[in-house]
Specification:
The chain is of the alpha/beta class and about 300 residues long. It has two domains: about 1-145, 3-Layer(aba) Sandwich (Oxidized Rhodanese, domain 1); about 170-295, Rhodanese-like domain (Oxidized Rhodanese, domain 1, 3-Layer(aba) Sandwich). About 30% of the residues lie in helices and about 15% in strands. The strands form four sheets. Strands 1-7-6-2-3 form a five-stranded parallel sheet, sandwiched between helices. A five-stranded parallel sheet has the order 8-13-12-9-11. A two-stranded antiparallel sheet has the order 4-5. Helix 1 (about 1-15) crosses helix 5 and helix 4 packs across helix 9. The termini are far apart.
């Protein structure tokens, strides 16, 4: 119950200050809480509660299925949180009842939005951007708006047909692409980690502190407000333009393992940028030779 009580306290704060007004410019990536209320009974809706499964029995949206993105990630070449194999992911989607006609809505069922954004990236990479959306505010916002929860577990019926995925390498970056980005003015690396890691003031377990050479910093936590709703579009756009991006700049995001980088990737897509995610992120880059340079400071 601890997690639920934490969310309830957050909801009380929201109600007190009235700061959970919804936006109208959600674009193609997000849906509002109002939209969710209107469509929660749609026959083709697949609603996914993205969080530690311990949060699910404490209360979730009607019809939501409990998932953890880790279930659909793999370890590969000493790295973890890597994209799954195409066939495996297609099987997983079929077992969740997802087919080519489904509208998929992801929401964060806890106090971190990053896993939900990572799941969005996975769908996007496999060519499903037209079918998948993120619920702004997630479960904390739903509670704040005093909307109903349930503890009932829906019956999940596998889809009759397996969906045909279309992986796009244009949404993925490997270490060689990172080197290319360092030489191209129209490609900008963005480090999604906190400033202490970006600047190198904290090294953690890495051999080399700092950030990938030429990278700028937008912290993944800065995308949402204290109530877990998206900040307004102008503020978000300012983060990207403020580091020198133009509408023609391609974004390549990274973090520690590729989880929080998905927040910066998703917001870049939301704002209209061409975007890729460096899945190996700093965990891989730190192990490479000195031709893969790092920098310190801001």
């Amino acid at each position: 119950m601890k997690n639920f009580k934490t969310l309830l306290v957050a909801a009380m704060v929201l109600l007190t200050f009235g700061s959970f007004a919804q936006k109208t410019d959600y674009g193609q990536v997000f849906v509002s809480q109002d939209w969710m209320q209107e469509h929660i009974n749609d026959d083709n809706l697949v609603l996914l509660h993205v969080a530690n499964p311990r949060t699910y029995p404490e209360g979730h949206l009607q019809g939501a299925i409990s998932v953890m993105p880790q279930q659909y990630m793999v370890a590969r070449d000493g790295l973890y949180w890597e994209l799954p194999e195409e066939e495996s992911f297609a099987d997983s989607l079929q077992s969740l009842g997802i087919d080519k006609n489904s509208t998929i809505v992801l929401y964060y069922g806890g106090n971190s939005h990053a896993p939900t954004f990572r799941f969005f990236y996975t769908f996007d990479y496999f060519g499903m951007s037209d079918q998948v959306k993120i619920l702004d505010g997630g479960l904390p916002g739903w509670i704040a708006n005093d909307l109903p929860l349930t503890t009932e577990v829906p019956t999940v019926v596998a889809a009759a047909d397996k969906i045909r995925l279309k992986p796009s390498k244009k949404k993925f970056a490997d270490k060689e692409y990172v080197l290319r980005a360092q030489r191209k003015d129209k490609i900008q690396l963005i480090d999604a980690r906190r400033d202490n890691y970006y600047s190198g003031s904290e090294k953690g377990d890495y051999k080399r502190g700092g950030h990938i050479a030429t990278a700028k910093n937008i912290c993944w936590e800065d995308i949402v407000d204290e109530n877990m709703f998206l900040k307004d579009r102008a503020t978000l756009a300012g983060y990207y333009s403020g580091i020198g991006l133009t509408p023609k700049t391609q974004v390549v995001s990274y973090c520690h393992v590729g989880l929080r980088a998905s927040v910066i990737y998703t917001m870049a897509r939301y704002l209209g940028y061409d975007a890729r995610l460096y899945d190996g992120s700093f965990n891989e880059y730190d192990e490479l030779d000195d031709s893969f340079a790092v920098e310190n400071g801001n």
